[in-house]
Amino acid sequence: MSVAEESYPDGLLYHPEHDWAKVDGDTGTFGVTWYAQDQLGEVVFFDPPDVGTQVNANSAYAEVESVKAVSDVFAPMSGEVIEVNEALKESPEKINDDPYGEGWMVRVRLTDPSEADSLMDVNAYKESLGR
User: What are phi and psi of 70, to 5 degrees?
Assistant: First the structure.
């Protein structure tokens, strides 16, 4: 298994449950942070929501199973799932390999873009991790 180097890109918004959101207009792309995938260990299964599912900020919307445990994935913002990263069904290890790139999980049409104001920027997230 290859694992990405620890990183927290600028330009993303971070949720306290170690999820990230990239907001582009009224669309958000969600995934888990490097810290989350490191805590999970090797991811072996990703159970995404169906396209069309409504997700709510701060609520679980998917599960990831690793060699250590099954964990909920929390939505950093609310909206309707418009795309699921189907590649993760066959290659869930992409979550470990590239958590901000090929390891993205869902794209959501945001229903309340102002929820972005409650998320952390990269510096606040790093501080929350003690980095």
Answer: -100, 130
Max CA separation in the chain (angstroms): 38
Q: Model-level pTM?
A: 0.95
- Interior CA angle at 72 toward 125 and 14, to 5°? 15
Other Cβ atoms closer than 10 A to 130: 5
Residues 6+ apart with CB under 8 A from 89: 46, 48
The token pair that represents 49 in the structure block: 């929501």
Q: Which two tokens stand for residue 38?
A: 């490191």
Residues 95-125 pLDDT 10s = 999 999 999 999 999 999 999 999 999 999 9
Determine which helix (DSSP H) or strand (DSSP E) holds 110, and give its type and residue range.
Answer: strand 106-110
Could you read off the pLDDT of 18-40 as tens digits, one per residue? 999 999 999 999 999 999 999 99
Q: In the chain, which residue ranges form alpha helices assigned H by DSSP?
A: 34-40, 87-90, 94-97, 122-129
